[in-house]
Amino acid sequence: MRDRILVIAGPTAVGKTEYAIRAAEAFNGEIVSCDSMQIYRYMNIGSAKPSPEELSRVPHHLVDFADPREPFTVADYQRLAREAVADIISRGRLPVIAGGTGLYLNSLLLPMDFAKAPENSEYREELLALAEEKGREYLHCMLEDADPEAAARIHPNNVKKVIRALERLKEGEKKVRPFAEAREEDFLYDAVLIGLTRPREELYSRINRRVDMMIDEGLEEEVRGLLDMGLDESFTSMKGIGYKEMLEYLDGRCTLETAIDNIKKNSRHYAKRQLTWFRRYDTMKWYDLSEYLSDSQAVEVIGECLTRRI
Q1: Rounded distance, CA 221 to CA 231, Å?
Q2: 248: which residues sit within 8 A by CB, 6+ positions away?
Q3: What distance in Å separates the CA atoms of residue 205 and residue 226, rounded to the nearest whole number?
Q4: Separation of alpha carbons 26 and 127, rounded Å
Q5: What is this structure's pTM?
């Protein structure tokens, strides 16, 4: 029997935080964040981190704990998230996975060893020599012979990915499944998948309002503080939407108005990519939050679905 977990996913600014908290309150749960920016300390405004009041309502895990000056990988997230889930289940409570970082969610749900990527340096050197001697197409043909589906997905010019795929096959994988591909029968958990959405124009309006609020709340000052800590655009933590655009402004490469417009535009594009990613989950049940008269009504309807499954 796989352990039961609840996943609440969706695009940025759709309202995941409130619904995840309400679900955790209703089902004796604790939240495990699935957000690649909310993990970092000192990065509160740009990451739209839950407020102190929201954090106090139910226990949260993997929020506000990582130093933005230190590297943090998908492998790190996978390990810590699985530990948090196991801890919550051991205490008889329900893990509620909440967030919008699709790769993080896959790393938690799927039996992929992100933490131990193949690093057979001898085999890698052999493949690199073959690419140098016989060309990229030769390596791609090797992959096509071993895994035609993977070869169809990976362009021959992307030597790095071709080599990574060949390494994974040599390490024992029968097929190189893309991280974006997720099937329920492969999940490590009995996952109830809830997707939240809104009509595009409504979602984009919410994104724009959120960005305006971030500016009003002091995003510029937050980024200046991070710069004072020694952070700059070379750090992974500073490549997040909101931070990279503000860095361009503070570096004199654009106006504040342009930076704000770019944050809004990039956030909208990100929301679109998130929806594309999460719609790959065939078993995810989607709720259009605009169809309900209030948050309470939406939570009640979603709760009925959960009651049937949990």
Answers
A1: 14
A2: 254, 259, 262
A3: 28
A4: 54
A5: 0.81
